[in-house]
Amino acid sequence: MLKKMALGILAGVLLVTSACSSSGSNEGKSSGSKNEKVEISFLDVTPSPDRTKYFNEIIAAFEEANPDIKVKMETVPWDQAFNKLTMQGASKTMPDVMNMYPAWLNTFVPAGYLEPLTADYDAWSDKEKLTSFVSNITMEEQQRKLYKEIYYMPDALMSGALFVRKDWFAEANLPLPTSWEEIFAASEKLTDPAKNRYGWAFRGARAGFDQVFAYITSVTGGETYEKDGTSVLFRPEALEAFVKFTDIYKKGWAPKDSINWGYQEMVQGFTSGVTGMLNQTTEVIGAAKATLPDEAWTVIPWPKGADGKRYIGAGANWGYSVSKDSKHKEASWKFIAFLSTPENNLKYSNAMTMIPIFKNEGGSAVDGPMQGFIDTLDDPDSYLVANLGNFPELGEFREGFMDAEVQKYLLNNQTAEQTLKNLGDFLTKAQQKYMKENPDAGVPQVTKPEMK
């Protein structure tokens, strides 16, 4: 059970300070002679004070254990990361090691920007300690099966759940929601503009479509495409769901300026006492703890759909990848292996309030807000939503097109029907083209997570 792999103390684990052996060409693998010191660059794409502090400490520990390797850390704001890495990949100036958002593989792998880590991963001494989810889904289903290679080592697991102001619910005599219908009802009832209170932390800007689509897939049975590659956005129930979810904003159950909210703004809306519900991931726990009284809030499992099933997104938060053009690939893998030891991964997961990638041999249970995420993943009625696809155009879709289309509707510049047609046409064209070029690919499938 995932409850036994959650954040606890892993005892008796040795730090891995040397890279595993690998097969194949040695081109780009050399770290220099034993007396030659090499420098590798590392790019963090989601910098924050906590992350910078952690990476500075872990880099210092790595350099102490590996005096022949120096790590130079750089950062780039999340909103700029994809474009920056795309330009660096094209100009062959990517950093040696970088945080990799899993969805970016659809763009970077076909472009030849990333070095396969398959041989190193297969020979890695800690491989058998990974959870079933990481081993079977993150590494095999989502990488080797799709790309024939391993291209990133996951940093931690992440899943969505619902942050709620339980004190607001108590004041309104409302039960904590377990279904989408209860979420819509609570969004309206918790809203009181005179008190600057709104029911839902709406995300209208970057990645806002993901929040809308989370509800749409609850009515499509977690499916994203028909068997022929046609997007489910053309289904009548998808249109109805799109309108119903975006009505949270249009009916004033979310702040007016939330049309411009991205990640930081929606989190701040919840932690500052403006919104009563927030769909977010484990990393928000730290921000909520720092700003809200413990008795005022909690995290509850993701709501179930009308069919009684819970359709969730879960997987690696980010990963660690190596540039194809790195001149120090052996040193780069050595650094990734160090970051990924069970002991260091636990430190990272605790610091970032995420779920470790390794089995918890200590068997400690989880208390408090993290339990909502654990319960969501452990529930036998939980299923992983089929993804949007593995076509190269997904980066273009995610990094601009999808949110621009939704905003046109929110601003009354486009009908709901036209919005879903534009989104559905893009996805259908790209998915069917991918299936034509990859006859054995099929469409993405709903899967049952194995969490133990």
Automatic annotation (TrEMBL):
Residues 1-21 form the signal peptide. The keyword Metal-binding does not apply. It comes from the Bacteria. Keywords: Signal. This is Sugar ABC transporter substrate-binding protein. It comes from Cohnella herbarum.
